[in-house]
Amino acid sequence: MLKQRPRVRPTRLAPGVLVAAVLGLVLVVSVSTLLGAANLGAGRVLREVWAQVTGGVSPLSASEAAIVWEVRLPRVVLAGLVGGALAMAGAAFQGVFRNPLADPFLLGAAAGAGMAATIVVVAAPSVTGWVIGPLPLAAFAGAVGGVTLTWLLGRSAGGGTAVLLLAGVAVASFLTAIQTFVQQLNTDTIKQVYSWMLGGLNTAGWREVLITVPYIGLAAVVLCLCGRLLDVLAVGDDEAASLGINPGRVRIAVLLAASLATAAAVAVSGLIGFVGIVVPHVVRLLAGASYRVIVPLSLVGGAMFLIVADHVARTAFAPAELPIGVITAFTGAPFFLLVLRMNRGQLR
């Protein structure tokens, strides 16, 4: 009797899989654009899109058309960018640290963004007229600053992934303490800061989308190109060095790109948790363990996941809106426990 050969997981992204993932993303974007808190009618919105393409007569009024093109569609696109960035960064961090529970906020990005955002809310609550608002700028700078401080502290302590993880814990604790101290001195701002920390995608047009595209696009290119190198790192540094790869340089490039994507996402969305854990693991279960597959599919899958989560957040209790971080936590927390149980042997 012939033995059945074990199933071999692919190490390259098959074109058919990528096409299917992109078609799924297009479907999610279409549904989320056609349906929303404002009851415009899916058929009328579809005819509006067709009218814009063909130059025909729109069935929507000017204000209704503005809801579609200046409110709903930019928000859907922004959700896709943020979700893709967080999921892709999560996959990259898991590859670098060889830790299935690593996430995009591991190196102090969340704590740095939260501290900087709190300071801006307290010090400049009514600043207007800026091309880019002070809160997104501060969150971006704080996220980058938190990661930079972690990196410098880790390098001064001897480097290495374990040391870098411990440095991230220390930096996050320190920056969170500063944030809490500032909040306690200005208790009237706690509600606004707390709302930002729960995450949200409130947008008044395409400005936030245009701000984030260059950073997330650059990070996506770098991380997708590093997929094969992450696969090599997974077998060990000695083996990677024997193949002519410098593990330290690869880790630096991946960490910089993943941190850039995280900072850009946090700057426009606040702190949205669990995306970077849930999506890469779902991709890993469905498509295999190669980062040449995981990173690009996490980008697409993260976009789909957050678009759906944001759609639920803005329509479930319309006209009221839930923080999107609440939706992702409802999904992510049970999944996190499942991942923890599945990988308990690797975490000892």
TrEMBL record:
<feature type="transmembrane region" description="Helical">
    <location>
        <begin position="291"/>
        <end position="309"/>
    </location>
</feature>
<feature type="transmembrane region" description="Helical">
    <location>
        <begin position="105"/>
        <end position="124"/>
    </location>
</feature>
<keyword id="KW-0472">Membrane</keyword>
<feature type="transmembrane region" description="Helical">
    <location>
        <begin position="321"/>
        <end position="340"/>
    </location>
</feature>
<keyword id="KW-1133">Transmembrane helix</keyword>
<keyword id="KW-0812">Transmembrane</keyword>
<feature type="transmembrane region" description="Helical">
    <location>
        <begin position="131"/>
        <end position="153"/>
    </location>
</feature>
<dbReference type="Pfam" id="PF01032">
    <property type="entry name" value="FecCD"/>
</dbReference>
<dbReference type="InterPro" id="IPR037294">
    <property type="entry name" value="ABC_BtuC-like"/>
</dbReference>
<protein>
    <submittedName>
        <fullName>Iron ABC transporter permease</fullName>
    </submittedName>
</protein>
<feature type="transmembrane region" description="Helical">
    <location>
        <begin position="76"/>
        <end position="93"/>
    </location>
</feature>
<feature type="transmembrane region" description="Helical">
    <location>
        <begin position="250"/>
        <end position="279"/>
    </location>
</feature>
<keyword id="KW-0813">Transport</keyword>
<feature type="transmembrane region" description="Helical">
    <location>
        <begin position="12"/>
        <end position="37"/>
    </location>
</feature>
<keyword id="KW-1003">Cell membrane</keyword>
<feature type="transmembrane region" description="Helical">
    <location>
        <begin position="209"/>
        <end position="230"/>
    </location>
</feature>
<dbReference type="InterPro" id="IPR000522">
    <property type="entry name" value="ABC_transptr_permease_BtuC"/>
</dbReference>
<comment type="similarity">
    <text>Belongs to the binding-protein-dependent transport system permease family. FecCD subfamily.</text>
</comment>
<feature type="transmembrane region" description="Helical">
    <location>
        <begin position="159"/>
        <end position="182"/>
    </location>
</feature>
